[in-house]
Prior knowledge:
Elements (H helix, E strand, L loop, with lengths): L2 H14 L1 H16 L4 E2 L2 E2 L7 E4 H27 L1 H4 L6 H8 L10 E9 L2 E8 L6 H11 L3 H6 L3 E4 L5 H13 L11 E4 L7 H13 L4 E4 L5 E3 L2 E4 L2 E3 L1 E4 L3 H6 L5 H8 L4 E3 L5 H4 L2 H7 L1 H4 L4 H10 L3 E3 L4 H9 L4 E5 L9 E2 L5 H11 L4 E5 L5 E7 L3 E15 L2 E10 L10 E3 L1 E6 L1
Parallel strand pairs: 3-22, 7-8, 7-12, 12-13
Antiparallel strand pairs: 1-2, 4-5, 4-19, 6-22, 9-10, 10-11, 14-17, 15-16, 15-17, 18-19, 19-20, 20-21
Amino acid sequence: MNYKDIDREYIDDFKKNKAEYEKDYLALKTRVANSKALFRNEVVPYSYKPLFFTRDDVRVFEKLGKTILGIGDKIVKQYLKSEDFRRKFGFPKELEELILIDNGYNINVPICRIDIFYDENDFKFCELNTDGSSAMLEDNSFAEITMDTLGVKNLENKYKLSYYELIDSWVDESLRIYGTWDGDKKVDKPNVAILDFIESATTMEFMEFKKAYGKKGYNCEIVDPKNVQYRDGFLYDGDYRIDLVYRRLVTFEMMERFGEVKELVKAYKAKAFCSIGSFRSQLIHNKLIFKVLHDKDTLKLMSNEEVDFIKAHVPETGEFKGSYEIFEKVLKNKDNYIMKPSDMNVARGVFVGRDMDFKEWEENLKSAFDTDYIYQEFIEAYNRPFLMYDGEFQIKDLNSVVGIFMYGEKFAGLYTRIGAENVITSVSSFRAANLIVEEK
């Protein structure tokens, strides 16, 4: 059994019961509209049909997550050790200083979402998200609702279906990591702060995490880094002492507004609180990591198995700057490349050669050259059948990007975006629930 078999069974059942599926979907719309499945406070478009995965798929996700984070640990170790290696990333002095500070626990990337293009055992990396990894509530809301749909109930006559809970499990993991923290400001029961610029915050998701910490018996507040103060050896938000920070603050946004967060930086340097994650995770988060991984001196740090893994699954990537030969290479091979700023989110600034005529491609490349852009091998996304409703149901083959959550360097769950475009963003894509299927 694989997920393609389950897809076929689901679609076959739909074809036999179209009227019942449509009635079920129309009832589902009301549930989704009143749910917590929101992006920027708006209900996101979604597919009635979920994505199905098997335990074999989960084993692939577990192994690839463990492997790429193990590779990432070697990158961090070399960055801490070698000034020459640090130059590869070109981070400003202020950020470099923060990365070099010991986080006080033994994990470099305590939380991340690894986005991949996936087709059974075949996969390619899309990007690695550490800072501000999100959409846990979105996935779990859709999964909970989808478990109650007609198509899934019909499958449950034959299979066991489930999904990964992503809120309480992260709260447990963050508290476990805090328990290993060696800072001298450690307390028995830390006050927690979910930290982000309020204007960037995923408010409803933050509220769910706040509730989850509360259920465990911990004080938790949503805190804007502009408002904190470092005093008496601790970090405060007003009178609220902060012991544990769940950092949703994206590093590039913080660096853009560095002058507004001086108190936070002072406290971080003084190790006045435990930050999960630390700024070391930026080494994996920044898209330059894919270029660095292919560098010959980097490959020498890796085992033979890791080298093979990088060459098979990490797309060719380079900095779009320097010599005219690089510009010409990318210009003349329009359909082979996608262009990305090295450190932006929500696909801002991304453009694809296949989506443009030559003149438009050339104009965009001229604007991007000798800036922070990278060029990257274009990976054609794998597609799967979905049921999309527009007055009536249609079966559509859509591209997908599968997000793999890792908590404490262990597989924790999934989040998937789907769409017809070459760039599947959080803003323009559809969502689908991710369900694990097992034989009864």
